[in-house]
Amino acid sequence: MLLEPIGNELDLTERHLLVLKKVIEEAPIGILKLSEVTGMQNHKVRYSLRVLEQANLIKPSAQGAVPGDAVPKFLEEFESEFKKINEKISRIQEIEASIPK
Description:
Layout: H1 4-26, H2 31-38, H3 42-54, E1 58-59, E2 66-67, H4 71-98
Antiparallel strand pairs: 1-2
Helix pairs in contact: 1-3, 2-3
């Protein structure tokens, strides 16, 4: 109930990161190939590509998606942002553990 939206966002983030990883590793790469190598349905890959393109993490090309200009900065900042999220999770776990059962 309370955690379902967070779980959904984490699922989306995982999917977007996997697509970004494959674009970086195999660029240029198209939707069909991305679908094949990730095991995701075409419409999910297409949505992730759209989100990544809006964030300047990928760029379209005639041969398929290629890494975008924002990738280095994103990767540099990812670790610190992820650390902040983990710290919040730890605080939430501490609160939950302190609730009388």
